[in-house]
Every structure is written in C-alpha cells, then in structure tokens.
C-alpha cells in the first residue's frame, strides 16, 4: 500500500489521543503527603539548579519555561500517556472533561475578520436571547471584536465570564438596516459528548459518544431511555474516534448492558493492589442486543466498554482494531495552576487481558505505530492484524480474544476507501468543508426556512454544481493542488451532512453521513439475523 503522506494525516492525531484520554477518579492514594513530598537529594539538586540559574546565570532566563521543559522531559521518559498540563490550558481541559463551561453558547467562524455565528448552542443563552446563525458580532460591552489583529482566544475571553454576568452585544444581521442589540446573561453551556441518538430501524437504535466526560453517562442515559420508549430492542453504540475519558463513566455505561455481578474490569497498581469493578442490578438494557462500533482511534474508556462486553459474551464488536491503551491516569495539581496526569495503574478486561500497546521503543515509535497499521494493510484486511498466541484468552462461552494492543472486533469492517480517503479526511480536519458550507449557506439562508429537518435528511438533494463551487473555493483558499475527481459523490455527501449540521444541529450530521457508512450498513445487516 502507498505510504500515507504525513502532511495530510498529521501525527497530532496520535498526540491528541494521548493527551485526551484521561482515565481516573476511582483510585485512591494511600501515601500521605509527608511520604510523597519528603526532601531528598534528587529534589534538592533540581531546586538548586533552578535557583542558580535564577540568581547567578549571566543572562535573564525564564525559569518557568525551563521547568515546563524539565517536567515534559521527565514524563516523556515514563510512558506516552503521562502528560503535563500547563496552567494556561487547565481551564479549557477541565471544561472539556467536566462537560460544560460558562459563556454565551455560540459556535463561531472568523469570516472576513469578523466573528460570525455558525450556530447557537441548543438551549444556551444566545439561543434564548435570539442570536441566529449568520449574525456578525461586532461589539461586546462596547469593545470592538472584529479586525485582522484579533485572535480567537481574545474573542473567547471577552465573551466568557462569571456565571450570571451580562454581556451586551451589537450584531449585524443581513436584511436589517441597523445593528441589533442583545443583552445576554452568561450561564453554563453544555459541551455535548453524545453527538447523536436516533433510530436506524424500527428495532435498532443508535447513539454516538465522542468522549467520556463527567456529563456523558447522564446524556447517554437520557437518550437511551428515549429510544427505549420508542420501542428499540437493539442498540448500536458508536465509539469510533472516541479517545476515552473517565474510567467511572465507562463503568456506568457498561453497567447498563451487563447483568448484576458480572466483572467489568480490574486495575492493578505498582504495589500489586487489585481493584475490581462489577456490574450492578440497575442496568436497563441487560436484555437488549448491543453492537459496539470501534476503530483505530477508539481508545482507553472506549476500549473498556468494548472489552468488558466482549469478554462477557455480550453483544457484538464491529469495526477495526482499537487504539490499544490500557493505562490509567490520575490528575495531580503542581501548585502553580498546572497539573500532571500521571499513569498510576494498568487496567485489565474481565478475562485478564491487557490491551496496552508496547512503548518500549519510545513515544515516537509508539505514535508511528498508527502509520504502520496503514502500511501493513491491517485497516483493509483483518488477516493482516498481528496477534500473539501467548496473549490468547478465552471468554466464558469459548470465544478466543487477544491482548497486547487493542480490541480486535468480532466483525471486521475495512476502512472505506471512498468516504475515508486521505484527501477527504484532510479537507474535513482542516475545516475546508465546514467553512465552505458556512459561506455557501450565508448567501441565502432563507432558502431553507421551509425545509424541515426530516425533509432535508430524507429527501433533499444537492446538485453537482456545488462540488464545482467547492473546487473553486479550494483553489481560492489554498495554493495546494487539491482535487477529488474520483470522489465527487463522497464530497457531495459530506457537504450535505455539514449543511444539515449548520442548519439543524443536534445529530443531523450523523443522520446524513451514516446513510453512506459501511459500518452502519453492516450493523443493520447483523441486526436482521435471527
């Protein structure tokens, strides 16, 4: 297979997975603070070196940056998933894992040096105040927030603030002669971790989870209850591309499917202490049929869910081999607003297998394993997946499963060479499709006023001209010669899905895109088998 160009499939995918898959919350430190932070020569040496540089070195040096480099250097020599979070990133990271933030609730795009609303967050302060997609926000509390020198971070700082505080916005709206004024009270705004929940067939429901945050189980349970009220007896749980999150949240979701007393997982720390987690009697879908969708970017908590169900002979795992992360992190503050997420234990699936990939050859080699999977042909042919007989385990019903590097699905579905080709994935990741759709939609939003969400998803068809317009847009925005002649239909499908998202939100993208998804097709086929 031709080697993937890293320009179009950047290593940041792997790094993002590593940084984003914090699992913790259940573990307890038995060491006291006195034991953890006693003085010793190694710590004194580092402290003295920093003091010497501060007070004696010939030039002024930012020792804070030296400390940051030192911390990262130490963690790099441990494992790929122990990470340092600088103080300036803590709020963003914490908000993402908490599942909400305090703000006004908009998704925006900087269009011609102006903050332009793509969509308001459903139920958020801006939606309640009457802000609409396409609105240009020009002033916030009298301050100008447009112009070439304004960065997105500056805009966010001016729009965020303490809860219940107010911000006065002046907005330019097409069709209005004068600027509109809105007084918006800042409030908690949800960062949804459930992207979509709807029925694929009369009996088969679908829920897609993008991460395991504090709010994820509550979101998931609400959607599962709605689908059960609609009569589903089977569920497709889509964890593709899900980098993980809190271990406890994964356990709660697994508990919905497993009978009381079934082992979910166990963890083991450096002292050999084992902590086992079991399902309870509260699960509401224990008698339902479950399909878990995974791929090479499903990691950590996603693998806990898939592994627990697979090892208990519950449901069917569909897709491609998962990422392979079996380490547990705990977040610890460093006293200056920064923190470290340190690996404190390993987790094991119910049969006793660890699915952690080897990192003996260093972090770079660890992340490059992603490309090795591509080059080996594993993503296209299940027989190319390398397994070790020494890591073979058997489930209670006699199914053979393997440890040592991810969850191998029960039903393999290859990478879709059309919908997931390198060019389209690059255009999607870089925001070209989303930005084009915004500008296309902004030409005449009123044209969609009388088209319902259901009508758009089921019946609306884009003509081929939109693909030509997108090609012209790319030629204007980038000097790179990006063409997709062989994938015109796939591009058109992505444009429709993105258009649905910007018009209707709330899972509309997934409802459109899933209609051309071979993994979803496989699940629907499996659900029809008695």
TrEMBL record:
Gene Ontology molecular function terms on file: endopeptidase activity; serine-type peptidase activity
SUPFAM superfamilies per record: ClpP/crotonase, PDZ domain-like
A UniProt-annotated Pfam family: PDZ_2
Keywords, ordered alphabetically: Hydrolase, Membrane, Protease, Serine protease, Transmembrane, Transmembrane helix
Any one biological process term the GO annotation gives: signal transduction
TM annotation in the entry: 7-25
PDZ domain residues: 90-160
GO terms for cellular component: outer membrane-bounded periplasmic space
InterPro entries in alphabetical order: ClpP/crotonase-like_dom_sf, PDZ, PDZ_sf, Peptidase_S41A, Tail-specific_protease
Similarity annotation: Belongs to the peptidase S41A family.
The protein's name: S41 family peptidase
